């Protein structure tokens, strides 16, 4: 069985051909700098790595030689405004940007600044650049096109109405070029109330126009499901909202997949100005996050859904790394066309240089545990479960190239932490790094 303790770092290669061994190196120890905020970036061509750590008023920058695995340089900075707040650190093309905000409480003015970090000499370049100034306090988020030549900075403003049932979100949207010069900016009001819609994914196209993937409830409620038991059904549909920031216009595409129910979905920019939508589907309209298969389709510039593809998950994949009794149950369900991959959510979508697509899914769910003591007092805690990965490759012609299941079992009580998996792509090979019990490396296909 899978163990939940004694975790070990596992590097699992997914290759076009089988590979049982690989080489790796471990660096010599160096003095660690711990901090609340930690960011890491790499430059493959220069074979360098950089870490940026923020601890209270100090910012630490370290550079490393990725080939020798040695620390090259470290610097400490405290030349930031008093009571500044870190907003984000992003690598855009070959530049690393340090975004931060200041708040003038008396004047009620919030300002957004950016400083560029020089990768080679481990320092900041020049003075800070002011990007935005607003007469209210907002939260900033950052998106950029796949080409990274357009950056969208969005800020969600404080609701005018307290009640979600009557409040329409207003979002400030500002498009910048790769050097962070503002091209256009505007304020957009969402087409539905906060209660009626949930934003589940965002994307930016080559022109910097944002797309919002939203879950919309036609009855105006905040209930995603209605009914009970076998009569429990889905009470929402999905919409792709395209926003033209310059003209303040919105185009809406309703997303429907015939008789299939979408359980998890991601957006990505296609090569022909289309938007790729990919994820997992269930054949029945029910309250389930279980997946029967993988889907892929495009939305063109006119908002039309094209090139719909569906790839059912074979029972042979479901039965990998499962107990014999589970395999038997799955085969029985498969005869009724009801075998599923449970609690599967999208984690990553990768469009490769040959236009093939890699989709990464992970089993994830949360369990609520409630106990009552002898005095009748109740206590509730939650456990977070990160289980198997499902990796799917679709070739450039839209055909299924392969599916692979990677077994793992991670359980924690404080959110994600070090659980889940990290993906890397090197020389056409895909690697997944995750923590697990070392005994799980040698699981046979009929063990769990």
Tell me about this structure.
This protein has helices spanning 315-318, 324-335; strands spanning 7-14, 37-43, 48-55, 58-65, 70-77, 85-92, 95-104, 109-118, 123-134, 139-144, 150-156, 168-177, 182-193, 197-204, 210-216, 225-226, 233-234, 237-244, 249-255, 261-269, 275-282, 293-299, 305-312, 344-351, 357-372, 378-394, 400-406, 410-412, 422-426, 429-437. The chain has 448 residues and is mainly beta. It has a domain at 1-29 and 314-448. The strands form eight sheets. Strands 24, 25, 26, 27 and 28 form a five-stranded antiparallel β-sheet that branches. It has a four-stranded antiparallel β-sheet with strand order 2-3-4-5, with no helix packed on it. The protein has a four-stranded antiparallel β-sheet with strand order 6-7-8-9, with no helix packed on it. Strand 16 (225-226) and strand 17 (233-234) form a beta hairpin. The longest helix has 12 residues, at 324-335. The chain starts with 6 loop residues before the first strand and ends in an 11-residue tail after the last strand.
Describe the secondary-structure layout.
Elements: E1 7-14, E2 37-43, E3 48-55, E4 58-65, E5 70-77, E6 85-92, E7 95-104, E8 109-118, E9 123-134, E10 139-144, E11 150-156, E12 168-177, E13 182-193, E14 197-204, E15 210-216, E16 225-226, E17 233-234, E18 237-244, E19 249-255, E20 261-269, E21 275-282, E22 293-299, E23 305-312, H1 315-318, H2 324-335, E24 344-351, E25 357-372, E26 378-394, E27 400-406, E28 410-412, E29 422-426, E30 429-437
Antiparallel strand pairs: 1-30, 2-3, 3-4, 4-5, 6-7, 7-8, 8-9, 10-11, 11-12, 12-13, 14-15, 15-18, 16-17, 18-19, 20-21, 21-22, 22-23, 24-25, 25-26, 26-27, 26-28, 29-30
